[in-house]
Amino acid sequence: MLQVRKSQERGYADHGWLRSFHSFSFAGYYDPAHMGFGNLRVINEDRVAAGAGFGTHGHKDMEIISYVLSGELAHKDSMGNVESIPPGDVQRMSAGRGVMHSEFNHKADETTHFLQIWIEPNVRGIAPGYEQKKFSDAEKRGKLRLVASPDGADGSVTVHADARLFAGLLDGDETASLALDSKRKSYVHLVRGELEVNGQKLVGGDAAMLQGESQLTLGAGKDAEVLVFDLAA
Prior knowledge:
By secondary structure, the protein is mostly beta strands. It contains one helix and 20 strands.
C-alpha cells in the first residue's frame, strides 16, 4: 500500500523569523491522523531568516537529524560542540538523558533552509552524543546513499534507533531502487523537484508512505532531491 500526502496538506507556521512546514503534529499544529509514521516523529521544513534562530532549548530521548538545503546552520550545544552545518552535511544529535542546544543563521543576507528530523530512539537515558558527516552530490547522484543507520554502515552517521535514512539526487533518465521489508514501514519525502515513486508522481514537499511493499522504485526525476526512511513498524 502506498499513500501520498501532498505538500499543502502539511501544517504551517509563520513566526516572521521562521517559516515552517510540519509533516507531523508539532507545536501548535495538531492532527491526530498524522502524529508520526512508525518511529519517525518529526519532519519540519524550516526557513530561518538572516540573523535569526532558535535560542538555547532542551531535548531528551530523541534522535535528531539536521539536513541543510541552502544557507548554513550554526549549532552550539551543552556537550561543547560548536559547528557550522552547510548543505551536504548530515548532523545527528542524540539527546539521550538531556542536552541543551541552539541553532542560528548568522548570515546577514541569506535564509537558511533545512529539514529538522526526529526519530524515536530504541534506547533511552543514554549519554547525549553528536556526529556530523559530509555526503557529496556525487555520492547521491542517480542512487540512494545511506546517510544514517543504527550501525554506521557505509560511513553513515549512527542513530540509536531502528531506522535507516537514504538521500538521493535524480534527474532525467536516472533511476534508483531499494528492496523493502514488507513487515516494516517506508517513508519517502521529496525535498525538491519532481519524482515518481512506484509510479506515483510527487512534487517538492510531497511524501509517500509505504506499508506492505517489497520494492521501492524511483524515476522520472526533474531536479529531484529525495529522502527515504526505512522504519520500524
